[in-house]
Amino acid sequence: METIANKIDISLTTNSRISELEDGLNKFGRIFSDHMFVADFSDGEWSDARIIPYNDLSLSPATSAIHYGQSIFEGMKAYKNEEGETLLFRPKENIKRLNISAERMCMPDIPEDLFYDGLKQLLDIDKDWIPSAKDTSLYIRPFMFSTDSYIGVKPSDKYKFMIFTTPVGGYYTEPVKVKVETHYTRSANGGVGFAKAAGNYAASLYPAKLAQKEGYHQLIWTDAKEHKYIEESGTMNIIFVIGDKLITPSTSDSILDGITRDSVLILARDWGYNVEERKVSVDEVVEAAKSGNLKEAFGTGTAATIAQISLFNHKGFDYELPSIESREFSNQVSLYLQEIKRGKIQDTHGWIVKL
Ligand code: COI
Hints:
Layout lengths: L8 E2 L10 H5 L9 E8 L2 E9 L10 H5 L2 E3 L2 E5 L5 E4 L1 H14 L7 H14 L11 E10 L12 E10 L7 E5 L17 H16 L4 E5 L7 E4 L3 E6 L2 E5 L9 H12 L3 E5 L3 H10 L2 E8 L3 E10 L2 E4 L7 H14 L10 E3 L1
Parallel strand pairs: 1-3, 9-10, 9-16, 13-14
Antiparallel strand pairs: 2-3, 2-8, 4-7, 5-6, 5-7, 6-18, 7-8, 10-11, 12-13, 12-15, 15-16, 16-17
The structure holds 2-OXO-4-methylpentanoic acid (COI).
The site of 2-OXO-4-methylpentanoic acid has 7 residues, from loops.
């Protein structure tokens, strides 16, 4: 069947910037690969799918996304195996989540074949941008935003879906110190916290800046109503090992349903850990830290991977966590994920897609 994904126009750069790749590995997300994928939505359908040299966009100052924030995105990574083949980790989950975000933000669905074929062809063209050194990858940023030139408040009639890529090393370069936020709120019940909506990240910046001034890298968000229950941390989901249990807040409409989080919980269950997805109160974590029962705390995310938390602050008190070396589960799962994503161990879950 002839679909828009079958007809992706390709126009290649005559001026590759591949020499910038190494530089990109030391500065997360600042160096972009040579090409980008673009498709436009208007009159109820997607058209004009194309791969073109990475470049600035020309937009009307009245572009509705700029004013009213209909803007959503995904984060994925591509890796190379030892044979030089390109591997993706659970890409179907990203397509699914992008469309969940789209529905909540009143944006059109992105057909799976448009997303997938655009991504495949883009990665094929820019495959030399996929780094192979340890802890590096090609970060992929699919995103959609509204493009009506109209300043009345309504769902836009026009959108752009785009994908660009950026070679990266680690997002956090050291274990993170986090502060439990008990005043500001990232997202509330009935809101858009579960969506990967640009505005969620905007809302987090000011409270995070205040915490950074006090010497913390990020916040641990708590529920909007009582600031009593833990939600997620900065750009990551959060998981604790308390005693012999792995404990994490259940996903809800105020928490992002992280793909790394889900993968970690599946592995933990496979390995016989006792996993609890439920409400996690700040008091429970503070008590566990005081009694020495809090063995591990870490964030999970595509960009952050497994980010160890070395300390958390609550109401003015710093609680130091056990040494990173002592953390049996998170070190094991971090290594396992690194290896499976690079095709070094057998993929028994069907998570890896080879392009
Ligand atoms: C990701 O982990 O891919 C994210 O989207 C976090 C990002 C805001 C850096």
